[in-house]
Amino acid sequence: MIGNDIVDYSVDEKKYLNQRYVSRCLSQLESNFLVQNGNKNALFWTLWACKEAAYKAYQQQHLSCKFSPPKFELSETTLIALSKHDMKSVFQGEIHYQSHSLSFQLTWPALDVVHCIAAQNLTSIEPCLVAIENNHAATDNIKQSHFTRTLAKKLLMEQGIDAEIFRPELDMGHYRKPGPPILIDNTTKTKRKESISLSHDKTWLAFVVSKT
User: Please, what's the b/e burial string for 97-130 (b: 16 or more CB within 10 A of its CB; e: otherwise)?
Assistant: First the structure.
């Protein structure tokens, strides 16, 4: 299982000043670290990227899981290290959801842009193939989704993977929604073993594929 999320926080929306919003996104422990941090905007959105990526990874094996951001909580050891990090170099940490633990890796592809990959463990992240692109033609959600899939298709073809990206619909009880993306082989018309994840924010696009 693999999940990824990219966030462009160059436009400072100061969401971290809205306590009601913060309480819907962070746990109390994470909020405590945010209050003490000198770079609150960067830390807030970095925490968010970790939660999104971890949820995407976890949902691939637990389709009925609903996203409750405060319940995806970075470990205290990870929060201590992250609060001291330069937010430029690679960072690895741990995030928990209920009794489950996932690993994640952070990179900053540009100033004020954070990218997170989450998986069951760090050894699953290391062999991942990653594509990140800043496409200024991605001016709205429809174009962002289209260009992300185009980026993904290019990376897959470079790896000799001829497949289509498909998102099966999930029945969540009171509503239906697209589930995690899967790869359908164009020759066999069956699901491939690779785990994939797509993400986009503003003009930034990201795609990750793992063979484990």
Answer: beeeebbbbbbbeeeebbbbbbbbeeebbeebbb
* H or E stretch at 21: helix 19-25
CA-to-CA distance for 104 and 116, rounded, in angstroms?
A: 7
Nearest residue to 181 via CA among 1, 29, 54, 19: 1
Amino acid residing at 141: N
Cβ-contact 46, 106 below 8 angstroms = yes
Spatial CA neighbour of 55 closest among 42, 73, 40: 73
Residue 156 confidence (pLDDT) above 90: yes
Residue-wise burial string across 152-169, b where 16 or more C-beta atoms lie within 10 A, e elsewhere: bbebbeeeebebebeeee
Q: Fill in the DSSP letter of residue 195.
A: E
pTM of the full structure: 0.95
CA distances (Å), origin 89, targets 53, 66, 154, 169: 19, 32, 27, 37
Phi, psi of 207 (to 5 degrees): -145, 135
pLDDT in tens, 92-145: 999 999 999 999 999 999 999 999 999 999 999 999 999 999 999 999 999 999
Which 3 state secondary structure label does DSSP give 192?
Answer: coil
φ, ψ (nearest 5 deg) of residue 138:
-85, 75
- β-pair type (91-97, 72-74): antiparallel
